[in-house]
Design goal:
It contains three helices and two strands, in the order H-E-E-H-H. By secondary structure, it is an alpha+beta fold. A two-stranded antiparallel ribbon has the order 1-2. Helix 1 packs antiparallel against helix 3. The longest helix has about 40 residues, at about 5-40.
Length: about 110
């Protein structure tokens, strides 16, 4: 086995262990944020978007939902007219603090 393959296997094991530990430590924050999102607006807690990853393999990126459910689909925020009107109250805080990115730990766990 080449050194690169060994390195990649070790890296994947470390990624899995560290992301699992992170989820176990951060689950109370996940719960609080999920409750705040549900109180602030109707709709799902998570935002899921298809992305292209390694070897052009498709995967879904997870984030906490920060925008209303009636937001135009498949339009990047920076290309919308008046995107601020679609961001929820809790969404502003989540984006400002980057807490909307926390669910990406789940993507790391999944590989």
């Amino acid at each position: 086995m080449s050194n690169l393959i060994v390195y990649l296997k070790i890296k994947r094991i470390l990624d899995f262990i560290l992301s699992l530990i992170s989820i176990l430590i951060l689950w109370p924050f996940f719960l609080i944020i999920a409750l705040l999102i549900k109180i602030d607006s109707k709709g799902p807690v998570f935002f899921k978007q298809k992305r292209i990853g390694k070897d052009k393999k498709e995967f879904y990126i997870l984030k906490f939902r920060t925008m209303r459910t009636d937001t135009p689909r498949d339009v990047p925020t920076h290309m919308m007219e008046g995107p601020g009107q679609f961001i929820t109250r809790i969404g502003r805080l989540l984006r400002k603090t980057s807490l909307d990115e926390l669910p990406q730990i789940i993507n790391i766990l999944k590989g």
